[in-house]
């Protein structure tokens, strides 16, 4: 029975909020504009703040809801964590959109809130703090992902959730490999800076 939760998580995670929002608001397809990435940051570029905010909420919700479903069904922590991984996998590699998805940070945030709302608040706090300190969106997100397993361990004491959140971090880091390369080269744009190369989104 518990195996159904990851399946549900993957299928819900595969629903692209960015593409749906852009279609409903008659905006350009985010896969064909800006960075080409179907995520909230790229929707901000092609459609403005409202469309980006709706996309962000949608991406977070598809991480939150399946995990909460597993939690309220009293699934073991391991299955809750696997469900969280499946949500992120669905966003990164959506079955409904030729397995070409976004970068997974918003969906990760939603999944973390499902596992522990305190860990979710710590994640967002660290993201905001790193954003203010370094003024680089991708660096703030990646730095918060490094801290995420510790946040979940402190708030839940669950080794299973620590391991699963580490795996989520590996997946999201992999999707940010172009950003990481630019960070190493000192070419990743700062928040609010116009850029010539695709970055977050």
Write a compact overview of the structure shown:
The chain is built from ten helices and no strands. It has helices at residues 4-13, 17-24, 40-47, 49-72, 77-92, 105-115, 117-134, 137-156, 159-175, 177-185. Helix 2 crosses helix 4 (49-72).
Q: Would you write up a description of this structure?
A:
- It is a single chain.
- With 201 residues, this protein is mainly α.
- The chain has one domain (4-185).
- The chain contains ten helices and no strands.
- The chain has helices at 4-13, 17-24, 40-47, 49-72, 77-92, 105-115, 117-134, 137-156, 159-175, 177-185.
- Helix 4 packs antiparallel against helix 5 (77-92), helix 5 runs antiparallel to helix 6 and helix 6 packs antiparallel against helix 7 (117-134).
What distinguishing features does this structure have?
single chain; 201 residues; mainly alpha; 10 helices; 0% strand; globular; disordered C terminus
| SS elements, strand count | 0
What is the typical, i.e. mean, pLDDT?
Answer: 91
- H/E element string? HHHHHHHHHH
Shape: globular
Helix content: over 70%
SSE blueprint:
Blueprint: H1 4-13, H2 17-24, H3 40-47, H4 49-72, H5 77-92, H6 105-115, H7 117-134, H8 137-156, H9 159-175, H10 177-185
